[in-house]
Amino acid sequence: MLLSSASLAACGAGQATMSVQAGAEAEASVQIPRLLTTQATVLPLDAYKPTGEQMADLTSAVRHSLASCMNGFGFMNYTKKRIHSETAPFPKDRRYLFIDPAKAAQYGYAGAPDAELSAKPPSASSSTNSSKISPEEESVYTGKGQGLYKGRQVPEGGCLGAARQTVTRGVAADDEWLITQLEGQAFQRAEDDPRVAEVTAQWSACMKRAGYDYSTPAAAWEDPQWRSRRDGGALSDKEKATATADMNCKLEVNYLGVRVAAETEEQQRAIDARGDDLKKFQSNLQIKLANARKLLGD
Q1: What is the dihedral angle through the alpha carbons of 176, 182, 183, 185, rounded to the nearest 10 degrees?
Q2: pTM of the predicted structure, to 2 decimals
Q3: HSE on the CB side for 152, CA within 13 Å?
Q4: Helix (H, G, I), strand (E, B), or coil: what is residue 104?
Q5: What CA–CA distance (Å, rounded) separates 123 from 62?
Q6: What is the pLDDT of residues 135-169, one digit of tens each?
Q7: 60-97: per-residue pLDDT in tens?
Q8: Which DSSP string corresponds to 173-233?
Q9: 3-state class of 136 per DSSP?
Protein backbone atom coordinates (compact mmCIF):
# COMPACT_ATOMS: atom_id res chain seq x y z
CA MET A 1 0.00 0.00 0.00
CA LEU A 2 1.31 3.45 -0.88
CA LEU A 3 1.93 5.87 1.97
CA SER A 4 0.91 9.50 1.81
CA SER A 5 3.41 12.24 2.59
CA ALA A 6 1.30 13.13 5.63
CA SER A 7 1.54 9.63 7.09
CA LEU A 8 5.27 9.60 6.46
CA ALA A 9 5.89 12.99 8.04
CA ALA A 10 5.91 11.58 11.53
CA CYS A 11 8.93 9.44 10.75
CA GLY A 12 10.74 12.09 8.76
CA ALA A 13 13.41 12.56 11.41
CA GLY A 14 13.89 8.84 11.96
CA GLN A 15 16.32 6.41 10.46
CA ALA A 16 15.96 3.66 7.86
CA THR A 17 18.42 0.79 7.73
CA MET A 18 19.40 -0.80 4.45
CA SER A 19 21.68 -3.80 4.17
CA VAL A 20 23.41 -4.14 0.83
CA GLN A 21 25.27 -6.98 -0.85
CA ALA A 22 28.59 -6.06 -2.47
CA GLY A 23 30.12 -8.88 -4.46
CA ALA A 24 29.93 -12.14 -2.50
CA GLU A 25 30.14 -10.51 0.92
CA ALA A 26 27.43 -8.62 2.77
CA GLU A 27 28.47 -5.15 3.89
CA ALA A 28 27.61 -3.87 7.34
CA SER A 29 24.24 -2.18 7.71
CA VAL A 30 24.35 1.52 6.92
CA GLN A 31 22.21 4.04 8.75
CA ILE A 32 20.45 6.19 6.17
CA PRO A 33 18.28 9.17 7.16
CA ARG A 34 14.64 9.03 6.12
CA LEU A 35 13.96 12.11 4.03
CA LEU A 36 10.69 13.58 2.84
CA THR A 37 12.52 16.34 0.95
CA THR A 38 16.10 17.36 0.20
CA GLN A 39 15.36 21.08 0.19
CA ALA A 40 17.36 21.67 3.40
CA THR A 41 19.99 19.02 2.66
CA VAL A 42 23.60 20.20 2.69
CA LEU A 43 26.08 18.13 0.67
CA PRO A 44 29.85 18.24 1.34
CA LEU A 45 30.74 20.29 -1.75
CA ASP A 46 28.22 22.95 -0.76
CA ALA A 47 30.78 24.25 1.73
CA TYR A 48 33.04 25.28 -1.16
CA LYS A 49 30.39 27.06 -3.24
CA PRO A 50 29.85 30.80 -3.29
CA THR A 51 26.82 31.79 -1.26
CA GLY A 52 23.81 33.36 -2.92
CA GLU A 53 24.97 36.78 -1.73
CA GLN A 54 28.47 36.20 -3.07
CA MET A 55 27.14 35.12 -6.46
CA ALA A 56 24.98 38.25 -6.52
CA ASP A 57 28.05 40.39 -5.82
CA LEU A 58 30.06 38.74 -8.59
CA THR A 59 27.24 39.02 -11.11
CA SER A 60 26.52 42.61 -10.11
CA ALA A 61 30.18 43.52 -10.56
CA VAL A 62 30.27 42.04 -14.06
CA ARG A 63 27.04 43.86 -14.92
CA HIS A 64 28.43 47.13 -13.56
CA SER A 65 31.68 46.87 -15.51
CA LEU A 66 29.90 45.72 -18.65
CA ALA A 67 27.46 48.62 -18.50
CA SER A 68 30.28 51.12 -18.09
CA CYS A 69 32.03 49.73 -21.15
CA MET A 70 28.93 49.48 -23.36
CA ASN A 71 27.68 52.91 -22.30
CA GLY A 72 31.09 54.30 -23.26
CA PHE A 73 30.49 53.11 -26.82
CA GLY A 74 27.07 54.75 -26.86
CA PHE A 75 24.95 51.71 -26.06
CA MET A 76 22.95 53.07 -23.15
CA ASN A 77 20.53 50.17 -22.61
CA TYR A 78 22.77 48.48 -20.03
CA THR A 79 22.21 48.93 -16.33
CA LYS A 80 24.57 49.03 -13.36
CA LYS A 81 21.72 48.17 -11.01
CA ARG A 82 22.83 45.75 -8.35
CA ILE A 83 21.09 42.40 -7.96
CA HIS A 84 20.49 40.51 -4.74
CA SER A 85 20.55 36.89 -3.70
CA GLU A 86 17.73 34.63 -4.82
CA THR A 87 15.23 34.14 -1.99
CA ALA A 88 13.49 31.08 -3.48
CA PRO A 89 16.10 28.63 -4.80
CA PHE A 90 15.11 26.17 -7.51
CA PRO A 91 13.78 23.03 -5.77
CA LYS A 92 16.68 20.75 -4.84
CA ASP A 93 14.36 17.75 -4.96
CA ARG A 94 14.38 17.95 -8.76
CA ARG A 95 17.94 16.63 -8.57
CA TYR A 96 16.44 13.25 -7.69
CA LEU A 97 13.30 13.65 -9.83
CA PHE A 98 11.10 14.27 -6.82
CA ILE A 99 8.29 16.74 -6.25
CA ASP A 100 5.75 16.97 -3.45
CA PRO A 101 2.99 14.40 -4.06
CA ALA A 102 0.34 17.09 -3.64
CA LYS A 103 1.96 19.11 -6.43
CA ALA A 104 2.24 15.97 -8.56
CA ALA A 105 -1.48 15.32 -8.11
CA GLN A 106 -2.21 18.87 -9.24
CA TYR A 107 0.38 19.46 -11.97
CA GLY A 108 1.80 16.06 -12.92
CA TYR A 109 5.52 15.87 -13.59
CA ALA A 110 5.70 19.63 -14.11
CA GLY A 111 5.33 19.89 -10.33
CA ALA A 112 4.28 23.54 -10.46
CA PRO A 113 3.82 26.35 -12.96
CA ASP A 114 7.02 28.16 -13.93
CA ALA A 115 5.83 31.17 -11.95
CA GLU A 116 6.11 29.15 -8.73
CA LEU A 117 9.71 28.17 -9.42
CA SER A 118 12.70 30.41 -8.91
CA ALA A 119 13.82 32.30 -11.97
CA LYS A 120 17.39 31.88 -13.14
CA PRO A 121 19.76 34.58 -11.90
CA PRO A 122 19.87 37.60 -14.22
CA SER A 123 22.38 37.18 -17.01
CA ALA A 124 25.59 39.13 -17.01
CA SER A 125 24.45 41.01 -20.10
CA SER A 126 22.18 43.22 -17.98
CA SER A 127 20.65 44.71 -21.08
CA THR A 128 17.29 46.34 -20.44
CA ASN A 129 16.34 46.01 -24.10
CA SER A 130 14.98 42.58 -24.96
CA SER A 131 14.92 43.23 -28.72
CA LYS A 132 17.56 41.77 -30.99
CA ILE A 133 20.74 43.78 -30.83
CA SER A 134 22.44 45.18 -33.90
CA PRO A 135 25.56 43.57 -35.41
CA GLU A 136 27.59 46.60 -34.27
CA GLU A 137 26.40 46.26 -30.68
CA GLU A 138 27.03 42.52 -30.70
CA SER A 139 30.53 43.15 -32.01
CA VAL A 140 31.33 45.56 -29.18
CA TYR A 141 29.69 43.21 -26.66
CA THR A 142 31.59 40.06 -27.70
CA GLY A 143 34.69 41.49 -29.38
CA LYS A 144 34.00 39.38 -32.44
CA GLY A 145 34.14 41.43 -35.60
CA GLN A 146 35.38 44.97 -35.90
CA GLY A 147 38.29 46.10 -33.75
CA LEU A 148 37.19 49.72 -33.79
CA TYR A 149 33.79 51.28 -33.23
CA LYS A 150 33.33 55.00 -33.82
CA GLY A 151 37.05 55.44 -33.59
CA ARG A 152 37.38 53.64 -30.24
CA GLN A 153 39.27 50.40 -29.73
CA VAL A 154 37.02 47.49 -28.78
CA PRO A 155 38.62 45.56 -25.89
CA GLU A 156 39.82 42.03 -26.49
CA GLY A 157 36.89 39.75 -25.81
CA GLY A 158 34.58 42.71 -26.12
CA CYS A 159 33.02 44.56 -23.22
CA LEU A 160 31.88 41.28 -21.69
CA GLY A 161 35.41 39.89 -21.74
CA ALA A 162 36.77 43.11 -20.25
CA ALA A 163 34.14 43.04 -17.52
CA ARG A 164 35.01 39.50 -16.57
CA GLN A 165 38.71 40.33 -16.53
CA THR A 166 38.01 43.20 -14.15
CA VAL A 167 36.42 40.81 -11.67
CA THR A 168 39.07 38.08 -12.10
CA ARG A 169 42.10 40.40 -11.91
CA GLY A 170 44.84 38.77 -9.85
CA VAL A 171 43.44 35.27 -10.25
CA ALA A 172 45.75 32.72 -11.85
CA ALA A 173 44.56 29.52 -13.54
CA ASP A 174 41.00 29.92 -12.32
CA ASP A 175 38.95 26.73 -12.66
CA GLU A 176 35.55 28.34 -12.17
CA TRP A 177 33.70 25.14 -13.11
CA LEU A 178 35.55 22.91 -10.64
CA ILE A 179 32.65 22.51 -8.21
CA THR A 180 30.17 21.86 -11.00
CA GLN A 181 32.45 19.21 -12.49
CA LEU A 182 33.03 17.47 -9.16
CA GLU A 183 29.31 17.52 -8.37
CA GLY A 184 28.49 15.97 -11.72
CA GLN A 185 31.09 13.26 -11.31
CA ALA A 186 29.93 12.45 -7.78
CA PHE A 187 26.32 12.32 -8.94
CA GLN A 188 27.17 9.83 -11.69
CA ARG A 189 29.23 7.63 -9.38
CA ALA A 190 26.46 7.66 -6.78
CA GLU A 191 24.02 6.33 -9.35
CA ASP A 192 26.20 3.20 -9.57
CA ASP A 193 26.08 2.66 -5.80
CA PRO A 194 24.57 -0.77 -4.91
CA ARG A 195 22.25 0.90 -2.40
CA VAL A 196 20.86 3.13 -5.16
CA ALA A 197 20.32 0.09 -7.39
CA GLU A 198 18.51 -1.65 -4.55
CA VAL A 199 16.23 1.26 -3.67
CA THR A 200 15.48 1.80 -7.37
CA ALA A 201 14.35 -1.81 -7.63
CA GLN A 202 12.19 -1.31 -4.55
CA TRP A 203 10.67 1.81 -6.11
CA SER A 204 9.97 -0.12 -9.35
CA ALA A 205 8.24 -2.89 -7.40
CA CYS A 206 6.15 -0.33 -5.56
CA MET A 207 5.12 1.27 -8.86
CA LYS A 208 4.19 -2.13 -10.29
CA ARG A 209 1.92 -2.77 -7.31
CA ALA A 210 0.25 0.54 -8.10
CA GLY A 211 -0.24 -0.51 -11.73
CA TYR A 212 2.72 1.18 -13.42
CA ASP A 213 5.61 -0.62 -15.10
CA TYR A 214 8.81 1.45 -14.98
CA SER A 215 12.33 0.23 -14.23
CA THR A 216 13.71 3.61 -13.13
CA PRO A 217 12.37 7.00 -11.98
CA ALA A 218 13.87 8.59 -15.11
CA ALA A 219 11.80 6.28 -17.31
CA ALA A 220 8.62 7.45 -15.59
CA TRP A 221 9.61 11.12 -15.55
CA GLU A 222 10.57 11.11 -19.24
CA ASP A 223 7.76 8.87 -20.51
CA PRO A 224 6.93 9.94 -24.10
CA GLN A 225 3.26 9.98 -23.09
CA TRP A 226 3.87 13.30 -21.31
CA ARG A 227 5.61 14.91 -24.30
CA SER A 228 2.50 16.56 -25.70
CA ARG A 229 1.88 18.35 -22.40
CA ARG A 230 5.45 19.59 -22.36
CA ASP A 231 4.86 20.98 -25.85
CA GLY A 232 1.90 22.97 -24.60
CA GLY A 233 -0.80 20.32 -24.67
CA ALA A 234 -3.33 19.51 -21.96
CA LEU A 235 -2.29 17.84 -18.71
CA SER A 236 -3.82 14.35 -18.55
CA ASP A 237 -5.33 12.62 -15.53
CA LYS A 238 -3.03 9.69 -16.32
CA GLU A 239 0.09 11.82 -15.92
CA LYS A 240 -1.17 13.23 -12.63
CA ALA A 241 -1.97 9.76 -11.30
CA THR A 242 1.37 8.34 -12.44
CA ALA A 243 3.36 11.22 -10.98
CA THR A 244 1.52 10.96 -7.67
CA ALA A 245 2.19 7.22 -7.41
CA ASP A 246 5.83 7.84 -8.39
CA MET A 247 6.41 10.35 -5.61
CA ASN A 248 4.59 8.31 -2.99
CA CYS A 249 6.67 5.26 -3.93
CA LYS A 250 9.83 7.30 -3.54
CA LEU A 251 8.72 8.26 -0.05
CA GLU A 252 7.70 4.69 0.80
CA VAL A 253 11.11 3.21 -0.04
CA ASN A 254 13.11 6.23 1.21
CA TYR A 255 14.54 6.91 -2.23
CA LEU A 256 15.68 10.40 -1.27
CA GLY A 257 17.52 9.26 1.84
CA VAL A 258 19.45 6.61 -0.07
CA ARG A 259 20.35 8.95 -2.94
CA VAL A 260 21.60 11.62 -0.54
CA ALA A 261 23.65 9.11 1.47
CA ALA A 262 25.35 7.76 -1.66
CA GLU A 263 26.07 11.19 -3.10
CA THR A 264 27.36 12.49 0.23
CA GLU A 265 29.96 9.72 0.31
CA GLU A 266 31.01 10.35 -3.29
CA GLN A 267 31.35 14.09 -2.76
CA GLN A 268 33.49 13.50 0.31
CA ARG A 269 35.74 11.24 -1.73
CA ALA A 270 36.07 14.01 -4.31
CA ILE A 271 37.03 16.48 -1.58
CA ASP A 272 39.64 14.09 -0.22
CA ALA A 273 41.12 13.62 -3.70
CA ARG A 274 41.00 17.25 -4.86
CA GLY A 275 41.62 19.12 -1.62
CA ASP A 276 44.41 21.30 -3.00
CA ASP A 277 42.35 22.29 -6.03
CA LEU A 278 39.41 23.18 -3.82
CA LYS A 279 41.60 25.36 -1.61
CA LYS A 280 42.81 27.20 -4.71
CA PHE A 281 39.22 27.59 -5.83
CA GLN A 282 38.31 29.21 -2.52
CA SER A 283 41.36 31.46 -2.61
CA ASN A 284 40.47 32.62 -6.12
CA LEU A 285 36.90 33.22 -5.01
CA GLN A 286 38.07 35.58 -2.27
CA ILE A 287 40.16 37.54 -4.79
CA LYS A 288 37.19 37.87 -7.13
CA LEU A 289 34.91 38.95 -4.30
CA ALA A 290 37.40 41.61 -3.23
CA ASN A 291 37.54 42.89 -6.83
CA ALA A 292 33.76 42.89 -7.03
CA ARG A 293 33.23 44.75 -3.79
CA LYS A 294 35.81 47.36 -4.73
CA LEU A 295 34.09 47.88 -8.06
CA LEU A 296 30.68 48.12 -6.38
CA GLY A 297 31.99 50.58 -3.79
CA ASP A 298 31.63 48.31 -0.76
Answers
A1: 140
A2: 0.77
A3: 16
A4: helix
A5: 10
A6: 999 999 999 988 899 989 999 999 999 999 999 99
A7: 999 999 999 999 999 999 999 998 875 556 789 999 99
A8: S--TTHHHHHHHHHHHHHHT-HHHHHHHHHHHHHHHHTT---SSHHHHHT-GGGHHHHTT-
A9: helix
